[in-house]
Design a protein that fits this description.
The chain is of the alpha/beta class. Helices cover 52% and strands 14% of the residues. The chain has helices at residues 2-9, 13-21, 25-32, 38-50, 67-86, 109-126, 141-154, 169-176, 201-217, 229-241, 259-267, 283-292, 294-307, and strands at 54-59, 93-97, 131-133, 159-163, 182-186, 221-225, 250-254, 271-278. It has an eight-stranded parallel barrel, surrounded by seven helices. α5 (67-86) packs parallel to α6, α8 (169-176) packs parallel to α9 (201-217) and α12 (283-292) crosses α13.
């Protein structure tokens, strides 16, 4: 029941100020967000790749209010790609982007977001990697999927994210499970109304399994974004039943959560990608991590009690 409350707080400027000012916040945030700059996150990328893991990098920040901020977001990703290229990390690290950060919610936002994200996708392709478009709240998805389709005309490796808790997602999965597609499935981490999304955890899990089956039986490349041991085991079994080899799908987990499982899956021969966020505008990302799992919230609260 706390999840919706935390998600509401993720959009509150007052709560942002309170949480940001708490002395304990920064050490706890570091568990999920290992740096604020490219210089701080690059050593993390090197460490993860040396351990046999792959990475997807997210420059955090989404609730922008000006066109200039959208251009700054574009430039931040271009700078990241330049650093990855210089270190020869292109094949091990992809990028995840939120189109809201590229101006999607501003006036003329669809065209603005497409114009901003295209050079990022082009630069990523030039160094041998790609970009995945993150899913946000349900009102943004038609625009996201349209931009995804447009980008795939020139860069077919461009990925996208679908969210199991939305009623529409099974149909989206069938449409997207085509040859050459890259689709990440997650449960969903935004506050959505009952008219468009499952509210019960058991129903969300059932939907997640149905969608995994669609993706595994399709012709695309499924990316299973979950920390749930049961869903991971089901994903492995569905892949086996579909006759997929270990390099024909992958698992993705967040930096700082179940790190030992990252290494275990990679050691078994699975492709395992660590979703690694960095940047100064960490508040919304951090609050959604707390909302996703009660253990994350308890970790934060225990830290506050211990520090006070």
């Amino acid at each position: 029941m706390l999840g919706p409350v935390i998600l509401a707080a993720s959009r509150s400027d007052k709560m942002r100020r309170i949480v940001s000012a708490a002395p304990v916040t920064k050490p706890v945030v570091n568990r999920f967000i290992p740096g604020e700059t490219v210089d701080q996150v690059i050593p993390i990328v090197e460490e993860l790749t040396k351990a046999g893991l792959e990475v997807t990098l997210d420059v955090v920040g989404e609730d922008i209010t000006a066109v200039e901020q959208s251009h700054a977001a574009r430039d931040a990703y271009l700078a990241l790609i330049e650093r990855l290229a210089a270190l020869g990390l292109g094949e091990s690290a992809e990028m995840s982007v939120k189109l809201s950060m590229f101006g999607q919610a501003l006036e003329g936002g669809h065209e603005l977001a497409l114009a901003n994200v295209r050079p990022v996708v082009e630069a990523a392709a030039a160094i041998g990697t790609t970009v995945t478009l993150d899913a946000e709240d349900h009102t943004t998805l038609d625009s996201m999927f349209a931009i995804h389709e447009e980008l795939r005309r020139d860069f077919p490796q461009t990925g996208c994210v679908i969210q199991a808790y939305l009623f529409r997602t099974e149909a989206d999965a069938r449409r997207l499970a085509a040859a050459g597609s890259r689709v990440r499935i997650v449960k969903g981490a935004y506050k959505e109304p009952a008219e468009v999304a499952y509210q019960d955890k058991a129903e969300i899990d059932k939907a997640y399994v149905r969608i995994m089956k669609i993706l595994m039986e399709g012709d695309g490349y499924p990316m299973i974004g979950s920390h749930d041991p049961r869903l991971i085991a089901i994903g492995q079994e569905l892949a086996r039943q579909a006759g997929r080899k270990l390099d024909e799908y992958e698992f993705q987990m967040l930096y700082g959560i179940r790190s030992e499982e990252h290494v275990r899956l990679a050691a078994e021969g699975h492709r395992m990608r660590v979703y690694t966020a960095y940047g100064t505008d960490w508040y919304g990302y951090f609050m959604r991590r707390l909302a996703e799992k009660p253990a994350n919230l308890l970790f934060f609260l225990r830290s506050m009690i211990t520090k006070n």
